[in-house]
Specification:
This protein has 364 residues and is α+β, with helices and mostly antiparallel strands. Helix content is 53%, strand content 16%. Strands 1, 2, 3, 4, 5, 6, 7 and 10 form an eight-stranded mixed beta sheet that branches. A two-stranded antiparallel ribbon has the order 8-9.
Length: 364
């Protein structure tokens, strides 16, 4: 049973009979193949119907009645079913846990094999095959990567739990007010026709890596990457604004990168399985599509939030008046990080007429 993304499950797939693949599977899973799916479900005390739902949710292909499952598969079924029996999770929630874990780890595993393991298994000596190098390398790396994965997961879980318990009420745990930003590479479709596949892959990886680092460093949360687009969220408008401008500034100084545009909206957001949904997200996406090159457009609610928190003046005229008054009174004027410039109102498909604001750094 091999993990595949849930949306791409091959329900006709049969387990491999390749000797090295089987040895690697046994090394990674720590157990030999012993059970057919029916035998595994019966041993775990789970109905075959529920077992199939769990396996498919995790992204595993149907294998008919091949003897391809291990004690680890039985234990996983038993644990999930036990959580349902104990009333800690409903059955739909258990399936959702299986799906979110499967989708996340499938992507991680694919990345490690494609980018990480492939580079390390170059034959060190003439005459050696990649196959001969892979087994001992996996044997050395497996326990270290496993411990590191658990450490990062616990860290992320602690951070996510902290955000939830600080929510004002139960409704806010699910529907929260957040700043949501999209960053989009301009002209990416044209690039795909011009660049070689390897060059395109390197550009996308550089964009995703740079974006992820900047989002994390400045207190945001990377929601997902879509090749030429990054979606992030932040609890505070000022944090989202700083990330957006840092992204623009960083990409502008990288000659290998195309132009970037960013759209941000602030409002109620529904969170599910690590993703975000709702009108606020849709608005941020629409703002990105109409933003000028190397610029940041925000919605009215986001602009109001920056003004409310003292991150931007309500207007430059008001800021100048306040500065003159402060100078006359012999005190320091208020300091603002950002500037907001109203743009022309325009209709946005599915969202009516919006008034975008151009966000920039404010020169003191």
């Amino acid at each position: 049973m091999h993990p595949t993304p849930h949306h791409a499950v091959d329900h006709t797939a049969e387990p491999t009979d390749d000797p090295l693949a089987i040895r690697l599977e046994q090394l990674i899973l720590g157990a030999e193949r012993r059970y057919t799916p029916f035998q595994a479900a019966r041993t775990a005390g789970v109905s075959m119907e529920l077992a199939s739902r769990f396996w498919r949710a995790m992204g595993f292909a149907d294998i008919g009645q091949a003897k391809a499952l291990t004690e680890a598969d039985v234990l996983a079924l038993r644990r999930l079913a036990g959580l349902v029996e104990a009333g800690l999770l409903s059955e739909p929630m258990a399936v959702q846990v299986a799906r979110s874990t499967g989708q996340t780890t499938a992507r991680l595993a694919e990345w490690q094999i494609d980018s990480f393991l492939e580079g390390l298994t170059e034959p060190p000596e003439p005459g050696m095959t990649r196959t001969e190098v892979t087994y001992p390398l996996v044997e050395l790396l497996l326990p270290e990567l496993e411990e590191f994965l658990i450490y990062v997961w616990r860290r992320q879980l602690a951070a996510a739990t902290g955000r939830v318990v600080q929510a004002a009420d139960d409704e806010e745990m699910v529907d929260r007010r957040l700043a949501v930003g999209f960053a989009d590479l301009v002209g990416f479709t044209r690039l795909t026709r011009r660049l070689e596949e390897e060059e395109l892959g390197e550009l996308v990886e550089a964009f995703e890596t740079t974006s992820a680092d900047l989002v994390a460093a400045h207190g945001g949360r990377l929601i997902k990457t879509l090749g030429d687009e990054v979606l992030y969220a932040a609890d505070e408008a000022g944090t989202a604004a700083e990330i957006a401008l840092r992204l623009i500034e960083t990409m502008t100084h990288d000659e290998s990168m195309p132009a970037l545009r960013v759209g941000i909206a602030f409002g109620t957001v529904t969170t599910r399985m690590g993703d975000v949904f709702g009108t606020t997200v849709n608005l941020a996406s629409r703002l990105t599509s109409i933003a000028p090159k190397d610029a940041v457009l925000v919605d009215g609610a986001f602009a109001e939030e920056l003004v409310r928190t003292g991150e931007a003046p309500a207007s430059e005229a008001e800021a100048a008046e306040e500065a003159a008054k402060a100078e006359k009174e012999g005190r320091e004027p208020l300091s603002y990080r950002f500037a907001l410039q109203p743009m022309w109102q325009r209709p946005v498909r599915g969202l009516g007429v919006v008034e975008p604001w151009l966000l920039s750094r404010r020169r003191q």
